[in-house]
TrEMBL record:
It comes from Leucobacter alluvii. It is found in: Cell membrane. Its main location: membrane. It holds the Pfam family MFS_1. Residues 25-439 form the Major facilitator superfamily (MFS) profile domain. Keywords: Cell membrane, Membrane, Transmembrane, Transmembrane helix, Transport. This is MFS transporter. Coiled coil: none annotated.
Amino acid sequence: MSPASASGSLTPTGTIATSSDRRRVAFATVVGTTVEWYDYFIYASAAGLVFSQLFFEPAGPGVGTILAFLTVGISFLFRPLGAFLAGHFGDRFGRRIVLVVTLILMGAATVLIGLLPTYSQIGIAAPILLILLRILQGVSAGGEWGGAVLMAVEHAPRDRRGLYGAMPQIGVPIGLLLASAMLAIMNIIFPGDAFLDWGWRIPFLFSIVLILVGYWVRRRVEESPVFTEIAEREEQTGAPIVKLFARFTPLVILAALVFAGNNAVGYMTTGGYVQNYATNPEGPVGLDRGDVLWAVTASSVTWLISTFIAGWICDRIGRRTTYIFGWILQGAALFALFPLVNTANPVLLASGLMLLTVGLGFTYGPQSAWYSEMFPASVRFSGVSISYAIGAILGGAFAPTIAAWLQQTTGTSTSVTLYLVGMTVIGLIATLLLRDRKGISLRPGDEEEQREGIYIWEPASAPKP
């Protein structure tokens, strides 16, 4: 029996990783990502449900809703800043320190939002402070994902990167599940005006408990073996972002478009649009707030399951093939979504959201492994984080705002469906322009191989070294 099979398996650097090491890393990435995205989704859900009333009431119901969704989108504009900072420090000083800092930053901003006075209490200062805290959340989110992904994938055996890469991915639907369930429970405990007064604040304040748990878990994880080898070889890139854009600009753009196709559709629920659309008493549905929150909670479970399955199956059929299958499922589910929501039946609403999240899972589960295999080791943190951040701006940043504007302008949800289908097609096209690189070496000594065979063509702007 080989040493690898006796005590563990080979990491991308060729060192031995035991089963306990891999479980610890997987658990840490799930917990940390869950905490980060619980904080992020609590805000987005609250924006769709109550922030138009609490912070933008003078603007009126329609404009107040759009302004509330704009605060969701504004944070995305600062994700690239977080990605640039995290990429720079992550490629120079390691993945783990970035993960700890981003976790604390996100949690602190979330707790402060829970303590924030409303417009009726301090006037225009309330929405200004809300936006500033949301910007801090955006900076944190821009840096967190790339670090979590690389910790998971760079610790994983070569033939199981999809599965281990799915661990930080499933933290996102778990975060949505916790956020929606927490708000649903608060809606029961604090019905009616009590929810507006205090009920919405408690999920934000609860974040302090999650921060402590996430911090403890992440501090116990060893540094990524790939970065450890880079540091031992003293090959850290002095200006990784400059190198990234000098050599891999087309790759950053295509990777961003892949994520944009998923993110725009995902933010119909994670950005709070469906919650607002389905509960608006002046809209076509007018469901009870609790019914909608439980429907979103149920859909987060199917999103979690499909994301995990997609991560597992992409180790067998490839990242690109899994994505193509996911785009087809996502596009088909979009045509069923609003007809089911518009029935004003909570069960059919949940069914529509659950169908949609299957496609979302298959266009999200393989992302960690595919992104990690796209970029050379010396710029991998920067490439993964910045592509993700740009994709979030192009996709989810203003998707709820665009959807709300389309609905108000056209008076029909069909326009929203066509917009989302268009984003899905963009994601599919970007997927088709990239090659599958399943199993490629991630070691810093194999950068020449990592720079080859990225696209289905070789663009002039991506010269070979």
